[in-house]
From TrEMBL:
<dbReference type="InterPro" id="IPR048627">
    <property type="entry name" value="Sec10_HB"/>
</dbReference>
<dbReference type="Pfam" id="PF07393">
    <property type="entry name" value="Sec10_HB"/>
</dbReference>
<keyword id="KW-0268">Exocytosis</keyword>
<dbReference type="GO" id="GO:0000145">
    <property type="term" value="C:exocyst"/>
</dbReference>
<dbReference type="Pfam" id="PF20667">
    <property type="entry name" value="Sec10_N"/>
</dbReference>
<feature type="domain" description="Exocyst complex component Sec10 N-terminal">
    <location>
        <begin position="69"/>
        <end position="185"/>
    </location>
</feature>
<dbReference type="InterPro" id="IPR009976">
    <property type="entry name" value="Sec10-like"/>
</dbReference>
<dbReference type="GO" id="GO:0006893">
    <property type="term" value="P:Golgi to plasma membrane transport"/>
</dbReference>
<dbReference type="InterPro" id="IPR048625">
    <property type="entry name" value="Sec10_N"/>
</dbReference>
<dbReference type="GO" id="GO:0006887">
    <property type="term" value="P:exocytosis"/>
</dbReference>
<protein>
    <recommendedName>
        <fullName>Exocyst complex component Sec10</fullName>
    </recommendedName>
</protein>
<keyword id="KW-0813">Transport</keyword>
<comment type="similarity">
    <text>Belongs to the SEC10 family.</text>
</comment>
<keyword id="KW-0175">Coiled coil</keyword>
<feature type="domain" description="Exocyst complex component Sec10-like alpha-helical bundle">
    <location>
        <begin position="191"/>
        <end position="800"/>
    </location>
</feature>
Length: 807
């Protein structure tokens, strides 16, 4: 502690343990110690005016830091206080450690005692649980024994009663008058029925065992129960009839509770089958003749079997709706009455389909004979097939409605199929026969129209020949082919409605599609053949009126007129054939589109079906293409015949060998060339429109080759002068410009070479060698044409040719 002589002795104790708790700050502690001694260092806001310094001692230097001694004393005093505080804290810590050690020892001792107590409790609980379990098991065994004893007692009591009742039934055969009151009391019918069924089951089983034992020679221990079996059977039959009578009476009064009571008791007799069947059989829809007649009237009306298919469809929809409503009402009653409503609904729905529905189907679906088809005036086979599809579709809808109402475990789809199986087995044959019948009728109609047209043409038409007066519409009609496809499409729709298995559908679809392939192929081929007949008759006319050269002028004029008529007929038949080919192509396109849109998707799911159908269609189309190809070749013959006629009649010898009169050469095409190009432009216009693709290219290429060859053969009949060569080249240019519209490069090249070959008539003899050297590809044709020069001999060109060929 400070003394009186110590400068800091007068300072109060400034430090306390509380100063070091909480948020301790050394700066705040230090500031609190020195603020009183150093007021000049306080902040500007709270600094007090500094006292005046003490007067200096004479002869001594003024101190640098006057408060140093006070501060040193303060700091020493503070250090002593801090040491004292540390000692106090250390002492307190020692005391706390001793207290914690004592308390920890007590706590550990207490925990040990608690653990021993808990272990003892667990042991007690385990012993208690084991005891409870043992007592429970013992109680359960006692309960089981008591329950078994009670059950045995009840069974023995019931057995005694059953033996007593059995003895009553086994007393006298056919005598049911001496039975206990139980079997005649109407209020105890349920109990009597239950006991009778038990007795009957026991007696029948005993008789059965007796029969087996007798067969092996065992003792006859059960002799006499045959009487009981007979009496019980008689009693059960009588009781069942009595309950059915009560059930019927309650049904007429709509007493559902009584009906339910009877049905519950009757369920003990053969699981209630007789009651279920009896209820279903007594429904008015199955026994009322008036309802059956009304059904037929609703579906067929006054027209009977001649009713329109749409009328029958509406009638079936109305009838089936009424049937579904009736079954729905019956389902409400059945659910309220019978303990097993699903079984009753199965019997009811089966009876509806097998009786009521089948009755009306037998009236509207009368299968015709394939040997004697019904006439189309009465609807033909198509009427039967349409009604079949309608009836099947409507019946399937009815089946869905009935299934939604409830039909138990009945296989309603299988039942529907069994109803229609007789019709579906021969469906494909009937569909094919119907399509053939429609086709034959259509062909007969077209022939009648053609005959009427032929007769309307009069004697002039007959003199020229029937085929020449046949219009293109009568040869091939796209509308007729569209009708064929429409028939087939309708048949395919019926097929997919009647069958669902992909394999069956594919097989039937392919058979039906084969019909339209045959029909279209036959119709188009016959149309093409009729168009070819026109071409043949025009060719016959040309041959008939060809004459020799030594005839009179009058005969020659008559022959020329006949040739003009034959040319007109040929041009007309050419146009008709091209239109027929165009319509044939359109018809095939319709068939192919139908195959892609409708047939393919039905065949693709089955392996091999689609490729086979493609082959069938390819074969059918190839037959048509073969006929069309023959006709196109005849068209080329017709065109070339007219070209040859124009060349022979219009081409003059002076066209290519003009006299050397000094006049300017004529650079116009010859009259024959003009006439031929005009003819070709006119007649081929229809070909350009009718043909397309490879057919068009092939036809024009063949025609171009024939024209080139014909012109070469024609020009070899003439002699050419230089001016005639120029005019020949002008003709070749005119022909070349025309055939360029063929878009056939090979033909263009041939006519270009012809233009070069024509130069052999124009150049001077001495320039021929250079012509061959410039274009060696024309050597073969040029060597033939060069002999047609009018100066071939005079200019000794033959010797020049020998030199050229030798080189």
């Amino acid at each position: 502690m400070p003394t009186a002589a110590d400068p800091a002795a007068a300072l109060p104790l400034t430090l306390d343990l509380e100063d070091f708790k909480g948020d301790f700050s050394f700066d705040a502690l230090f500031g609190g110690l020195v603020d009183e001694l150093l007021p000049e260092y306080r902040g500007e806001d709270d600094a007090a005016p500094a006292p005046p310094p003490p007067p200096p001692v004479l002869g001594a230097a003024p101190p640098v830091f006057p408060a140093v001694d006070e501060l040193l004393g303060l700091f020493k005093h503070s250090c002593k206080e801090l040491v004292d505080l540390r000692r106090q804290i250390d002492k307190r810590l020692q005391n706390l450690k001793k207290e914690v050690a004592v308390q920890d020892t007590k706590h550990r001792k207490t925990l040990g005692e608690l653990e021993k107590g808990v272990d003892g409790l667990f042991d007690s609980f385990a012993r208690l649980d084991s005891r409870i379990s043992s007592v429970g098991q013992t109680a359960a065994k006692i309960g089981d024994h008591l329950q078994s004893a009670e059950s045995q007692r009840e069974t023995a009591s019931q057995t005694i009663d059953l033996i007593k009742y059995l003895m009553e039934f086994n007393s006298t055969p056919g005598d049911l008058m001496e039975l206990s009151p139980l079997f005649s009391d109407d209020s105890r019918v349920a109990e009597a029925a239950s006991i009778a069924q038990k007795l009957r089951s026991f007696a029948e089983e005993d008789v059965g065992r007796h029969g087996v034992a007798s067969a092996v020679g065992s003792a006859n221990a059960s002799r006499g129960l045959e009487v009981a079996v007979a009496n019980l059977q008689e009693y059960c039959n009588e009781l069942e009839n009595r309950l059915l009578a009560r059930f019927d009476a309650a049904s007429q009064r709509r007493e559902l509770s009584t009906m339910a009571e009877c049905a519950k008791i009757l369920s003990q007799f053969n699981r209630g089958t007789s009651a279920m069947q009896h209820y279903v059989a007594t429904r008015p829809m199955f026994i009322d003749v008036e309802i059956m007649n009304t059904d037929i009237q609703v579906v067929l009306g006054d027209e009977g079997l001649q009713a329109d298919s749409s009328y029958i469809a509406d009638g079936l929809s109305t009838l089936y709706k009424e049937i579904a409503d009736t079954v729905r009402k019956e389902a409400t009653t059945i659910t309220a009455v019978f303990p097993s409503p699903n079984e009753v609904m199965a019997i009811l729905v089966q009876r509806v389909l097998e009786q009521r529905v089948t009755t009306i189907l037998d009236r509207i679906l009368i299968k015709p004979s394939l040997a004697s088809l019904p006439p189309l005036e009465e609807g033909g086979l198509l009427q039967y097939l349409r009604i079949l599809a309608i009836a099947y579709d409507k019946t399937k809808e009815l089946a869905k409605d009935l299934q939604s109402i409830g039909c138990g475990d009945l296989d309603i789809e299988g039942l529907i199929e069994s109803i229609y199986v007789a019709h579906k087995d021969e469906y494909t044959e009937f569909e094919q026969a119907s399509l053939r019948q429609l086709y034959q009728a259509k062909m007969a109609e077209l022939k009648a129209e053609a005959k009427q047209h032929y007769e309307s043409t009069g004697s002039i038409g007959r003199a020229k020949g029937a085929s020449l007066t046949t219009s293109p519409q009568q040869l091939i009609s796209v509308t007729v082919v569209t009708e064929f496809v429409r028939w087939n499409e309708e048949a395919i729709a019926r097929c997919t409605l009647l069958f669902s298995q992909p394999t069956t559908v594919a097989a039937n679809v392919r058979s039906i599609f084969a019909c339209v392939l045959d029909q279209v192929s036959q119709y188009l081929t016959e149309g093409i053949d009729r168009a070819r007949d026109s071409l043949n008759e025009a060719a016959n006319m040309r041959e008939k009126y060809s004459i020799g050269s030594s005839v009179s002028r009058r005969v020659a004029q008559a022959a020329a007129n006949a040739a003009e008529a034959a040319a007109t007929a040929g041009e007309s038949s050419f146009r008709s054939f091209m239109i027929a080919v165009q319509r044939c192509a359109s018809s095939v396109a319709i068939l192919q589109q139908y195959f892609s849109n409708t047939i393919s998707r039905l065949l693709l799911p089955v392996d091999g079906a689609h490729p086979s159908a493609c082959e069938d269609m390819g074969s059918a189309v190839s037959v048509v293409e073969a006929a069309a190809h023959k006709g196109l070749l005849q068209c080329i013959d017709t065109v070339m015949s007219e070209v040859e006629r124009l060349l022979s009649s219009e081409q003059k010898a002076t066209d290519y060998r003009t006299p050397d009169d000094g006049a300017a050469p004529d650079h116009r095409p010859t009259n024959a060339c003009i006439r031929i190009v005009a003819y070709l432009s006119r007649v081929l216009e229809v070909a350009f429109n009718a043909l397309e693709g490879l057919n068009k290219q092939s036809f024009l290429t063949e025609l171009g080759n024939r024209l080139h060859k014909g012109l070469l053969n024609h020009w070899q009949k003439f002699t050419f002068s230089p001016s005639g060569g120029l005019r020949l080249k002008r003709d070749i240019t005119e022909y070349g410009d025309f055939v360029r519209s063929f878009n056939a490069p090979s033909i263009d090249e041939k006519f270009e070479l012809l233009g070069i070959v024509a130069n052999v008539f124009i150049v001077a003899p001495e320039s021929l060698a250079s012509l061959f050297e410039g274009t060696p590809s024309i050597r073969k044709d040029a060597l033939r044409f060069i002999q047609l020069r009018d100066d071939y001999k005079s200019a000794k060109i033959a010797s020049m040719l020998n030199n050229i060929t030798a080189e």
